[in-house]
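Methods — Computational structure assignment.
A single polypeptide chain was analysed. Its primary sequence is given first, followed by the predicted tertiary structure written as structure tokens.
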Amino acid sequence: MYKQGKRFATSVMLVVMATLAVLLAACGSNPGSTTGSSKAPDDKQVFVYPVAGTPDLSDMDPAFAGGPIGPTLIYTGLVQLNEKQQLIDQLAQSHSVSADGLTWTFKLRPNLKFSDGSPLTSQDIVYSINRALEPALKSPYAMVYLGLIKDADKLQTGAVKTLVDDSLLAPTPDTVKIITKQKAAYFLQTMTYVTSYPVNKKLVDKYGKNFVDHLGEGAGAGPFIMSKYDQGRQMTFTPNPYYYGPKPALKKVIMAYYKDSETIYKVYETNQVSYAKIPTAKLASASNLPNNQFHLVPILGVQYYAMNYLAKPFNNIKIRQAFDLAINKDQIANKVLRGSAIPTNNIVPPGMPGHNPDLTGPAGVTSTKGDQAKAKQLFAEGLKEENLTLSSLPPITLSIYATSQDDTNQAVAVQQMWQEVLGVQVKIDTVDVNKLFSELDSTTNNPNGLQMWSSYWKADYPDPQNWLTTLFAPESSFDNYNYGNNHAKDIVDQKKALDLMRQADGEMDITTRLKLYNQAEQQVVNDAGWIPLYQMETGKALKPCVKGYDINAPFMPAPDSWSNIYISNDKPCTNV
């Protein structure tokens, strides 16, 4: 999840460094255990989930959803992922695919209803998918996650007016048929993303885009409804009385918004929230929290720097490689982040199907410490090829937004490495997140867009396609770096990588498919399509009174799993 809103998109347990193992030992086991715990009264069944940033109700529209847990509380999809990364039927009670791999049929559960009690049928599902893809809506994610649907591209250009009764079919009230434009082993995985989830047409007809201001009137079919919105502060969710699955045990989920992760941890310490991500500076002390509150959780995500292929001097592959190899990623992970990250040269991280442990960095460098001598050599060669000198080099700016002090500290450390190794003074521009995302969108096909920026991708679903084609194909809205869409001397190699990705996308044999993705990833890394920095190991704290919540899970609780999450009488707990 490129959590730009969404855009910065977790995994099975990884092999971690010895220092992290010590911390893991301190955190105890079985965080979701309910053994021997009595259930608190109903007025205490409140889970307070903190979020760093500013609330944005547009995230509660499935077509625009890119934020935290809110949309998955309100809406559900035909299929979803459970906490173990397994694909499960959700609104569908079964699914099948035709022999040619192009027609997917979903049989719905009986008696589905929206949260206002009105029926939810196959017509609502095809309507909602079509709505997300309508060009007038301008969803930033629809084509990324639903672009496999036949004629979706024609809908964007106006060649067809609707996909309903074209590639989106509702032959009976309990049957949905979706026709794809090609065989794609990962199609069901893309359908787990919230963009495809049905929204109540009645609300959209009544309020238009502003239906998100009226979510309590039956917007979705998920386990909760949004019952209250305190602008700029928090959202309150209460159980959906018409939910088709097992009902949530919690009486409220409060999504509370705070400035940053440091603030969130402070309010966790004073029992104002149920859960918190732990700032790096607090990891050592947090490991001593009583009652198994501390957990060190691997995340299926990678922090990286991106460079605009159209912006000088990053149109030159050797200069790109030099900026990568000048960085000692081990120092960033172990010193700046105090061992809370795993340095990497990979795009597809450990824990993902298709992770390549034998991948090398640019120019065949195997170490995550970089190669400073090689970086100097490549930089000199790149400058010469571009008829540049150090003095005539265009000013270079690294754009970041900081959700914690760690973000700033790592940028400053890398800035110093570039100065020491390459002799280049890179300016750090810390900007508002919304401004950065707006500038990123305008960087596509733009040599005058951003030069270099910091970002983070977290998996939307456990498939390497989500890390390669989704991110680097020029037709994707996430290819702000203009990979495969430039005039660099290595453009032929970039196009070869893209061909490998597209071949893998349609390959149904898993062994062949993953081999193709491995080859594509190696080429992208050679091209310095990204500068991968590290995979995060995130410290999390969970109050002992929260039972049944799998804090180690890579994804949010599946809709039915909320029935297992409750508040016990154990202390400490939140002051609600």
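Note: Residues 1-34 have pLDDT under 50 and may be disordered.
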